Amino acid sequence: MPYFAVDDGAHWNLKFRRASMAARGLWVTVGSWVSGALTDGHVPGDVIKMLGGTGAQVRSLVASGLWHDSGHGCTRCPQPRPGDFYMHDYADSGNRSRAEIQARREASAEGSRRHRGRQQPRPPAPPGEQLDLGDIGQPPDAPRRAPISPDWQPSREDVHAAQVARGDAGLPQLTADQIDAVTTKFVRRMADDGSSAVAWGGRWRQWAEGERIATAGSPDGGVVVPFGQQKPTRSQQQRAGLDRLRAKYEGGTTA
Fold first, then answer.
1. Residue 14, Cβ neighbours under 10 Å: how many?
2. Higher confidence at residue 240 or residue 31?
3. By C-alpha distance, which of 25, 65, 64, 70 is closest to 48?
4. pTM score, two decimals?
5. Under DSSP, is residue 210 helix (H, G, I), strand (E, B) or coil?
6. Environment class of residue 86 by beta-carbon count within 10 Å: exposed (0-12), middle (13-18) or buried (19+)?
7. HSE-up (13 A, CA, CB side) for residue 141
8. Which residues is 43 bridged to in the sheet?
9. Cα(50)–Cα(81) distance, integer angstroms
């Protein structure tokens, strides 16, 4: 949308200040019409009357130099037809020319046409035929979930990540034998549960991070046991206490 440019320093311009206040209003009003009609600064006399301009306002604009009438002596501005006027320095005051505005409109319309063309749906393929995809490759097959292999082993990265996590949690590092024990227990559990996954490294790391080493002399022989299974229940503690008392008295010791 074209617009009529009014400089922010117009109120200090000598030509503008010489014109009467009413003439300045006519200058802005006619400037708006000229910009929309794409006349490149030419002001038809009939338009002045149509917009309510008076002869006194027109004479004030011409006398101040804001407008030129036919036969003027300004070498920078074109000559209007008799009865018409021209806005002084219209092209040099930030106003776009008719040719520039039309070129912008054509470019915008062409861009809109291309956009609509891209948005139009393609016609369906005839029955029994498929669309030619050209060189467009088919997407690769998505990874598939599968049960764990009996000989599955964690990678070096999996073992390293589990050991780091155990260190951060204040737990001792796993030995090679303990890692084998953890892996055997993990594979057996995943197989018994019928679990399936795309990759097993992450699950194994969580399993290994949640294990801790059994105390020396335990029935487990020093391998790892899951958290929550190390501490006996109250009934187990009571039974163990009775077993110790029975062993002490049967062995002939005294309290």
1. 8
2. 31
3. 25
4. 0.41
5. coil
6. buried
7. 4
8. 85
9. 18
**pLDDT tens for each residue of 94-118:** 888 888 888 888 888 888 888 777 7
pLDDT given for residue 221 in this prediction: 44
How is residue 196 written in tokens?
């399936």
Cα–Cα dist 128/130, whole Å: 7
231: how many CB neighbours lie within 10 A of its CB?
8
First-to-last alpha carbon distance for the chain, in angstroms, is 107
Q: What is the pLDDT of residues 152-207, one digit of tens each?
A: 999 999 999 888 888 888 888 889 889 999 999 999 999 988 888 888 988 888 88
For the residues of 70-103, what is the DSSP string, one character each? TT---TTSPPPPTT-EEETTSGGGTPPPHHHHHH
Strand 211-213 with 224-226, pairing:
antiparallel
Is the pLDDT at 136 greater than 70? The verdict is no
